[in-house]
Write a structure and sequence with these properties.
Elements: H1 17-28, E1 81-82, E2 89-92, E3 98-103, E4 114-120, E5 126-133, E6 139-144, E7 159-166, E8 177-185, H2 190-198, H3 201-210, H4 214-227, H5 232-243
Helix pairs in contact: 3-4, 4-5
Length: about 280
Amino acid sequence: MPHTRFHFGQFALFFSLPLALSAACLTLFGMPQVLLAQGIPERWESSEYEPPEDIGRPRRIKDAATRSLNGSCDNNDKPLTALLPQNQLGITVAEYPTLFVYLPAFGTEALSMPVEFVLEDIDGKEVYKANFPTNGISGIVAFGLPSKAGLSPLQVGQDYHWRFTVICNENDRSQDIFVGGVVRRVELESELKERLMVVSPEEQVELYAEAGIWQDAVSTLVQLRRDNPTDLQLAADWEKLLNAVELGDIAQEPIEPMPATTLRDLNLPQSQLPSE
C-alpha cells in the first residue's frame, strides 16, 4: 500500500533576555515554546504519494465538456471539482472527516439535481453510501461522514476511495458525472498535537497545511469562513490554500452553510434522508 511520510520542519528561535523569560514561563506550564505556524505553503507538497492504479474512474476534476444525453447536466460553468491536491489524496486526523466538492449549477433554470456519495475501503467494499438532493445553486459543498449513523471510524493508515456523483438521469446511470479521490487517516505526532491544542483556529489551519494534512486544513478554514464571512484575511487565506493545489479558480465560489449529510439530523421525511 502506498505510504506518505510527513516531515515536520525544524524551528530555531533566538531569544533576547525578555523573550527567554517568557519562554521559560511557558515551559513551567508544560506548553511548547513554538506555538506559531509559518503560514500556508505557497505550493502543496504531495509528490511522494501516487494514487492506487485501481482507483477507478473518479478524478479530481471532471472534464467541463461532459454533457448528458438529455441535457439535464448541461453546464457552462466551472466543472464539478473535488477539493483535493493533484494526487487525489486527502490526509486527515479525523475519525469522521468532512470532504468537499465544488458543485456547479446545471441547466438554465438551476435544476435541483440528485447526488450520491460513496465511500469504499481499499478492497472496494462499500463502507458508506448517501443520496440527497441539491438546491440547484453552484457552490462548494461539504459532506461529512456521520458519526451517529453506526459507521465505524476510519482506520489509521488505511486508504479509502470516495466518489461524489451527480445523477443526471436516474433511468440511465451511464450519464452520471462524478469526481473523487482517496482519504487516509493518520495519527498526529505528539509535538504537533500539543501545538494544535494551544493555538488559535487560524494557526491550526497553518499547522495542518505545513504538515500536509489537507482535509483538516480545509475543514478548519471552511468553518472559520462560515463563522466570519466578511473577514478579508480569512478570505485571503482560503484563496492561498486553494492556489497551493491549483484550485484558485473556485476560491471565490460560495460555501454551502452546512454539510450535506447533516440532512439526516433534520426533521425530514424518511424518503428524503440519505440512504445507508
